[in-house]
Amino acid sequence: MSGHFLIVEARFYEALADAQMAGAIRALEAAGASYERVSVPGALEIPAA
Q: What does the alpha-carbon distance between residue 28 and residue 30 come to, in Å, rounded to a whole number?
């Protein structure tokens, strides 16, 4: 699964966001993929990211 991915994360529930981000980054790095990360305050802001 090599490639480049964009991760858009909503930070409203920080503990949940941190856990999900850690898992996503771990999986992408294990697959040799690169990524960019964009954080927004909540889910409603995701389309504007």
A: 5
Q: How far apart are CA 27 and CA 48, in angstroms?
A: 26
pLDDT confidence bin for 1, thresholds 50/70/90? low
What SS3 class is residue 32? coil
Give the burial string for 2-29 (b: 16+ CB within 10 Å, else e).
eeeeeeebbeeeeeeeeeeeeeeeeebe
**Total count of domains within the chain:** 1
Measured distance CA(35)–CA(49) in Å, rounded: 15
Which tens digits make up the pLDDT trace of 16-25? 999 999 999 9
